[in-house]
Structures are given as structure tokens and as C-alpha cells.
Design goal:
It is a single chain. Among the domains are: 220 residues, Cathepsin D, subunit A, domain 1; 96 residues, Immunoglobulins (Immunoglobulin-like). The strands form five sheets. Strands 27-26-23-24-29-25-28 form a seven-stranded mixed beta sheet, with no helix packed on it. It contains six helices and 33 strands. It is mainly beta. The N terminus is likely disordered. The chain is globular and about 95 Å long.
Length: 506
């Protein structure tokens, strides 16, 4: 049985850790959260007018009515706040009703698109005062796509534990688009990388992105399994009802058609992943913890093995501004842009031929992505937390849907004969490890199973499997960790229920 090579974007994390710099200036999500908090405090966003009729027997009531936001999506809650001076009673009308206290607040939710008027009339000895405000409700954005763990695209043999989604790319601002199937969902990398061989480049005509020198920008994405080399292009990226407009993506060239030549500083990590057979997918959708794939490190320094300026057939390593780096599409969505949720059913012993779950965008933004009581595990600026296994604490551990097994160091577990790098115990093992957030935000024990890969049926593409690594510094929680869980990936700077990203939650 062919086992798909695991992807492990440790090189990208290592670059961040090596420079030891602050990741980036305050990201967009943080600014949005700050502005939203400010609007709540000021009571602005849906300010109401006020009118009154007076009487000679007292002071005219003055009524103030506002809402936390003048716009919302269907099913989204906003808060009405009001106060009335010189009044003894108030009555609501329009899209709400009933008697109200002379001051207070109320949560309102509308389930259909439209404009909703809220009015409040308050009376006192001096007459009557009133105020009104309007809430504009739009249809909710479809914030999820089907995620299928199953057989790979045409040209790929049997694979195991590879989650795929469909991704649509468009020439920016146009309706010239193409949908690419079998794109691997990877929480261990950041940005969209598609194989050039599956993209209709002549029809799409995606604009090229330039390096600071003015020459075409190329990128090298290095993984444990190999490297991806190709030009940086600009595209609109569509996932479900979400759109990331005009962001940088990478088109990955195959080893046989690569021009300009791949620099040695890129290819020294292994073989090319520029073909469907080598990658086991038509591309990689990186929806991990960070907004860009290198951030301020590559903006301020020339980092070998990342971005290049290619004026002709020869390329030179280059800095790359944050704004034009290959970026996590989720961070550029207009809504639902603070993270993702991966949801997959559980998998019993013996495995399955396929499994369908969801990739959900946003955390705490719609009814399907509430974080609820999930424990939050903060991550370092390199994307790591600590896992303790067999009394050994590993501070470079991470959760990675792009790894097709649980990979950790344990020489006591029998290695496979036919499936290199994987465990093949005589019988299914039930093990446990303890995860601790980078800032000690949470601690919890995880139980997991390891099956014998060589004993699985040839039709199995989903199973609880693992493999060995030589390092004692990290535990790679690959796709089997996601089985039977909702796993939340909180982007850097995102604030959810008082927790600030980057974080994992489950």
C-alpha cells in the first residue's frame, strides 16, 4: 500500500524562530476587534434620532436609542441600548414591542435579510419623547466547504489521511475563474499553492507579483517531504461564500518544466513536490495560525530558501513586503476572518474508505463556529506548544492536518516493514500525551490509537496511524488528531472569548 509522504512545514517555523523577532505589527483582525469594542463603548454604529412633544407641567423627555452595529448578517445578534431622562414609562414599536424600562439594553436577532426599524417612545409629566434606529440585515455568507478525506486526484495512487477541498481562483475583480479539486487542507502552513499543471494559466491570465527589484517574484516553499518552486501570482480566492480579493498565491512548477532554474538554496531540502504524483494533491491550502507565510522576517531580511527576484533565468534571494507575500486566504475574507474550524467524524479501528467533514471559516462569528467550552492552547510566535509524552516535554509540538499520521519519537513501537517511517505494532496501541499551551493557558491529556499500517485493507484511506521521528523536541499531531473533534485554529492577533491568537482550541 502506497503511503502518502507527510508534509511538515517546520522550515517555515524555523525561519520565524531563528530571527527571534516580533512577528508583525498589529494585524487587521486585531484592529477590527479594537474598533468594534470602541463602537460598543461609544454606543455608535446605529445611532438613533430623537423627537419630543412638550407640556407645560414638566420637562420634556429626552430619548436616546442606539445599537452596537447598524449592519448584521442573518442570525447575527446586535445589542440595542437606550436611555430616557424625564420619563416614567417607555414603549417599543416597529421591529420590537412592549413596555420598556427607561434605560437598558436588549439583544436582537433577525433571521431574514432586510431593513428593520426600532422605535422607542417615552412619556413623562413634560410630554413624550421618541427615538428610532435602523438595522440592515444581509444574507449570511456560506462560511464552510466540504472537506473529504479519501482517494487522491487522477494520477495519484492510494493515499491515507489526506483532507481535500475544492478551491476557486479568479483573475482579480473578474468572473474569469477556475475551480481546482483535491487541494490539501494544511493547518501547518500559510497560503494557497497550486500546481501549474492543473491551472489554466492562459485563460485565467493571473497578474504576476514583483519583488522589490521590479523583477518577477518567485518563491520556494520548503517542507520535510521536499520543496515547491514557482512564481507568485495575484488572484481572487473563493471558498464557499467567502472571497479573498487580490491576494498573492504560488503557482508551483514541475521539476521538468521549471524556468528559471531552481536555486540550490531551495532544492537542498529534497525532491520537488511540483507534480500531482509527488504531492498527492493538486495544491496546498495553508490555513494555519499566521496571516502570511513569512511576515516581517522576510520583509526586513533576505531569507535564503524563501523569496527570490528572477529577472531572467537566474534568481537572487530577495526581501518581500508583507503585503505581497503569499498569504492565508482566511485573513483576507471580509467576514469570518479570525480563524478556521476543522470538523471530522471519529474513525473506528480498521479505518474507512472515505470520510467527509467540514472546513468552517471564522470562530465565534456564526452559529456553526462557536468555540463553546473548547480549551484554548496558545501557540508561540513559531506556532508551537508543549506536548509531554513518556515523561518527555517537547516544546516544539504542533497540530498539522497536512501530516497524514501522528509523528513522534518512540523506539519501543515496532516500525513497519513495508511502509517506511510508520509504526506497525502487533496490535492496536492506546496511548496518551499531555498538551500545554505556550503561555500555560490550558493543559489537557489526549488519548490516541496507533494501528498497524501494513495490516490495513488496500481500500482504506482513513485510519488512526502514526510514525516515528528521531527528534525529541516536537510531537506532530497530524490528521488522526482531528478525528472525532472540532479543532479551532485562531489566527495571530484574533481575539475570541478573551483569548488572543495564535492559538489552537479543541
Amino acid at each position: 500500500m502506497h503511503i502518502f509522504a507527510r508534509l511538515w512545514s517546520g522550515a517555515r517555523r524555523a525561519a520565524r524562530a531563528h530571527f527571534g523577532l516580533a512577528l508583525r505589527s498589529a494585524p487587521f483582525a486585531t484592529l477590527c476587534a479594537t474598533l468594534f469594542a470602541s463602537s460598543l463603548l461609544a454606543g455608535c454604529g446605529g445611532g438613533g434620532g430623537s423627537s419630543s412633544s412638550s407640556s407645560s407641567s414638566g420637562t420634556t423627555p429626552v430619548v436616546s436609542l442606539s445599537m452596537s452595529s447598524s449592519t448584521a448578517a442573518t442570525g447575527q445578534t446586535v445589542t440595542l441600548s437606550w436611555s430616557a431622562s424625564n420619563a416614567t414609562s417607555c414603549t417599543a414599536s416597529g421591529s420590537w414591542s412592549g413596555s420598556k424600562a427607561t434605560s437598558g439594553s436588549s439583544s436582537v436577532t433577525q433571521t431574514a435579510a432586510g431593513a428593520y426599524s426600532y422605535s422607542l417612545s417615552c412619556s413623562g409629566t413634560g410630554g413624550t419623547g421618541s427615538a428610532s434606529t435602523t438595522l440592515t440585515v444581509s444574507a449570511s455568507v456560506t462560511n464552510s466547504v466540504a472537506m473529504v478525506v479519501g482517494s487522491g486526484p487522477t494520477g495519484v495512487g492510494s493515499v491515507i489521511n489526506v483532507p481535500y477541498v475544492d478551491v476557486t481562483i479568479c483573475n482579480p475583480g473578474t468572473g474569469v475563474c477556475q475551480t481546482i479539486d483535491h487541494v490539501l487542507v494544511d493547518t501547518g502552513s500559510y497560503g494557497l499553492r497550486l500546481l501549474s499543471s492543473v491551472v489554466d494559466t492562459s485563460t485565467l491570465g493571473l497578474p504576476s507579483v514583483t519583488a522589490p527589484s521590479g523583477s518577477a517574484a518567485y518563491e520556494c516553499a520548503q517542507f520535510v517531504s521536499g520543496y515547491e518552486w514557482g512564481p507568485v501570482k495575484q488572484a481572487d480566492v473563493r471558498l464557499g461564500g467567502e472571497v479573498a480579493s487580490g491576494i498573492s498565491i504560488q503557482l508551483v512548477n514541475s521539476a521538468s518544466t521549471t524556468s528559471p532554474a531552481v536555486p540550490t538554496s531551495c532544492s537542498n531540502t529534497g525532491s520537488s513536490l511540483g507534480s500531482v504524483s509527488a504531492l498527492g494533491a493538486n495544491g496546498i491550502l495553508g490555513v494555519g495560525l499566521f496571516n502570511e507565510d513569512c511576515g516581517t522576517v522576510c520583509a526586513n531580511y533576505v531569507v535564503s530558501g524563501t523569496y527570490y527576484s528572477c529577472p531572467s533565468t537566474t534568481c537572487t534571494a530577495s526581501k518581500m513586503p508583507v503585503a505581497t507575500q503569499v498569504s492565508n486566504p482566511v485573513a483576507s475574507f471580509s467576514t469570518d476572518n479570525n480563524g478556521v474550524v476543522l470538523s471530522l467524524p471519529s474513525v473506528a479501528s480498521g479505518g474507512l474508505s472515505s470520510l467527509t467533514g467540514s472546513l468552517i471559516f471564522g470562530i465565534g462569528t456564526q452559529s456553526n463556529n462557536s468555540i463553546g467550552t473548547a480549551s484554548v492552547y496558545t501557540a508561540s510566535s513559531s506556532g508551537y506548544f508543549t506536548t509531554t509524552y513518556n515523561s518527555t516535554s517537547m516544546a516544539s509540538s504542533f497540530i498539522d492536518s497536512g501530516s497524514n499520521g501522528l509523528f513522534f519519537h518512540d523506539t519501543s513501537i515496532t516500525a513497519c516493514t513495508n511502509s517506511t517511517g510508520f509504526f506497525c505494532p502487533a496490535s492496536t496501541l492506546t496511548l496518551s500525551a499531555t498538551n500545554t499551551g505556550y503561555t500555560g493557558s490550558a493543559t489537557g491529556t489526549v488519548s490516541f490509537s496507533i494501528e498497524n499500517v501494513d495490516n490495513l485493507s488496500n481500500s482504506v484511506t482513513v485510519a488512526n496511524v502514526g510514525g516515528s521521528v528521531s527528534s525529541l523536541t516536537g510531537f506532530d499531531w497530524g490528521l488522526p488528531f482531528f478525528f472525532g473533534r472540532k479543532v479551532f485554529v485562531g489566527l495571530e492577533g484574533a481575539v475570541v472569548n478573551g483569548s488572543t491568537g495564535p492559538f489552537w482550541a479543541y
